[in-house]
């Protein structure tokens, strides 16, 4: 609109049922804009919410193991590590040494190496094994980014829901077919009191 007086700008805003919003107060002359301020605030809030939703927060999970862990416990811990990596999180693996175990760091190193090889499909070694006092540490990074992991997780959840719905529908259909087979015939004659009487009796 160019340079106009404040009264004229306010009149224009009233005529168009809009708000007069000052967007550059330090300019000379100040810059104002005609807009629906309520709608503008709503759209800004929506953008901020969407931006927060798409933000990826790096999370580091921790898993602790002993050098002489038994096979069953190892498989359980490995399952947790795989779950964390599939979700797009980093995992810090800590091997805890106690007593005489501290004199055999190769036990921890070999265990960490084995774990890294077992989860190659889902993660990679981001920080190589290193001794830290009584512990030995290694960090695994996920092969998929957090956003990609979320998309995959959503697709997997939708697939499971579709399979469950299909199974429920098939079960309902099977029950309906079973009921249809057991419906008594409509043409079957209904017995009455006269059917129980002796036909030779004269009435």
TrEMBL record:
Residue ranges of the region described as Disordered: 144-203
InterPro entries documented for this protein: T_IF-3_C_sf (IPR036788), T_IF-3_N_sf (IPR036787), Translation_initiation_fac3_CS (IPR019813), Translation_initiation_fac_3 (IPR001288), Translation_initiation_fac_3_C (IPR019815), Translation_initiation_fac_3_N (IPR019814)
Biological process according to GO: ribosome disassembly
Swiss-Prot/TrEMBL keywords: Cytoplasm, Initiation factor, Protein biosynthesis
Record localization: Cytoplasm
Matching PROSITE patterns: IF3 (PS00938)
Entry-linked SUPFAM superfamilies: Translation initiation factor IF3, C-terminal domain, Translation initiation factor IF3, N-terminal domain
GO cellular component: cytosol; membrane
Basic and acidic residues: bias regions: 145-163, 169-180
Domain Translation initiation factor 3 N-terminal: 1-50
Translation initiation factor 3 C-terminal domain boundaries: 59-142
Keyword match Electron transport: no
Molecular function GO terms recorded: ribosome binding; translation initiation factor activity
Described purpose of this protein according to its UniProt entry: IF-3 binds to the 30S ribosomal subunit and shifts the equilibrium between 70S ribosomes and their 50S and 30S subunits in favor of the free subunits, thus enhancing the availability of 30S subunits on which protein synthesis initiation begins.
Family membership: Belongs to the IF-3 family.
Subunit structure: Monomer.
Protein name, per record: Translation initiation factor IF-3
Organism: Luteococcus japonicus LSP_Lj1
């Amino acid at each position: 609109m160019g340079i106009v007086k404040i009264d004229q700008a306010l009149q224009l805003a009233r005529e168009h049922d809009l708000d007069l919003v000052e967007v550059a107060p330090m300019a000379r002359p100040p810059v104002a804009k005609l807009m629906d301020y309520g709608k503008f605030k709503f759209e800004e809030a929506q953008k901020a919410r969407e931006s927060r939703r798409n933000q990826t927060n790096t999370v580091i999970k921790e898993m602790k193991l002993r050098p002489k862990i038994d096979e069953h416990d190892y498989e359980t811990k490995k399952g947790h590590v795989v779950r964390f990596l599939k979700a797009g999180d980093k995992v810090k693996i800590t091997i805890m040494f106690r007593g005489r175990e501290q004199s055999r760091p190769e036990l921890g190193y070999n265990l960490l190496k084995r774990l890294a090889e077992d989860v190659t499909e889902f993660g990679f070694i981001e920080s190589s094994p290193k001794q830290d006092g009584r512990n030995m540490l290694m960090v695994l990074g996920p092969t998929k980014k957090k956003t990609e992991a979320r998309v995959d997780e959503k697709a997997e959840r939708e697939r499971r829901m579709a399979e469950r719905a299909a199974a429920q529908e098939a079960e309902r259909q099977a029950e309906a077919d079973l009921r249809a087979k057991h419906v008594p015939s409509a043409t079957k004659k209904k017995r009455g009191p006269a059917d129980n009487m002796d036909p030779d009796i004269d009435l």
